[in-house]
Amino acid sequence: MERRIIVCDGAELARLWSRIGAGENEELTWVPRDNESRVRPPGFRALQGGLTAEAIGKLNPREGDVFGIVSEEIGFVRTAVGAVGETMPIAPVLVLSDKLDSGDLPIHPCLRLGRLRSLIRDDFDDEFDHLENLHRVVELRGLLATREKVGILLQPDPDPDGIASGIALRALLGRKSPTAPLISFGAVKRPENRAMIAALGIEVRIVTPPELEEFDGLALVDVQPAVFGESPPARVLSVDAVIDHHPERGGYDTVIGDIRTSYGATSTILTEYVRAASIEVRPRLATALLYGIKSDTQLLGRETSRYDIRAFAFLHALHSPALLRRIERPALPVDGLRALGRALASTRVQDGIHMLVLGRVREDVIPQVADLGLQAENTEWSVAAGIVGSDLVFSVRNVGYVRAAGEVVRAVVEGLGVGGGHRSMAKGIIPLRAFRELYGKIDRHSIHRALHDAFVRAINETR
Q: DSSP secondary structure string, 323-370?
């Protein structure tokens, strides 16, 4: 945001604004009434020429500036909004009045109504935040409205934050899945993420780079092109929009870019969009966005901003607890429960590591068991391992205040397989052939001993 240009109707409202306290980067102007003193209110300058487009133009408004119109008179508001619209057609405008309703306001593509005397400075700042988000929505809609088919591209193996953000963007654009499908280069694999799309009744379509050519609009959500490798598909290097909260990485062109690295989740950005646009947030969408924030911030405990907390509180009042339970507690297959029972029969926590060896299982069972294993007493690290096809696959969870799980897993698999992850969760894959060559036979005892010793070494070496 460049400036907030405040236009007050008369000296009384200008003095009221002064008592509330001017915010940062606010340019204060007033339009004197005929029957009042021309004594300049503190901090204000008169809008020379009255409420005309020419007078607004003399304020030298720039891209990124927003306007605040402070008045209780419908005529003043309509004239002021019209003058702003002539000067900057989609400039964001916040009307502050206690007597007017939304139906009284003139048509303007980026307009909000806020109450005046019931607000304090923080409330005004929040209203201007909503106005900036509304402006972003107006830009997105204007850019993509005429496109026949818009692809909403997520990261490979999309996570809840990306999925929820994609759903919200589609709702903001007023589209359905045929004209705005969620797409990805990789399938949804984690069980809770699969449970999420099943519970919400949505589809994430798997595409190849050549298939991107069927879309005449492309928006990247919770991802940037660098995630797709050193040589991303050419189509993703020039896109319409990128909305993300991860550290900014260049090397691409976009018409609209909204990268907010101080936010803990992209779902927070989209929540602010839907609030600003005043669209109806039904329980299904609220639950998706709530879970997106919850999963990416570990229930507001990791890399969380005040914006995440505010969005979470807003969504919590609207979400469906029953739907959220279905997402967070995906069903375990009977074979998986039997494997868990066998693993628990001989489980123990040693050196703070709870090791659960499951044998041959379906891959989606492994991370669920790792989540469960972290609940054992005196556990700092939970490792669940199982054989999937020709690989030994293991999922890792930790309590969050120890070494980063991704670093530890990379050390464990070095020279044997692949792995990595985040601070508190990670995944590793070791081909059975490589495991056998290093450790000999493959059975539960051998896997338990080998992984436990490897994790002890990795945790100690990376301290």
A: HHHHHHSPPPPHHHHHHHHHHHHT--EETTEEEEEEEE--TTHHHHHH
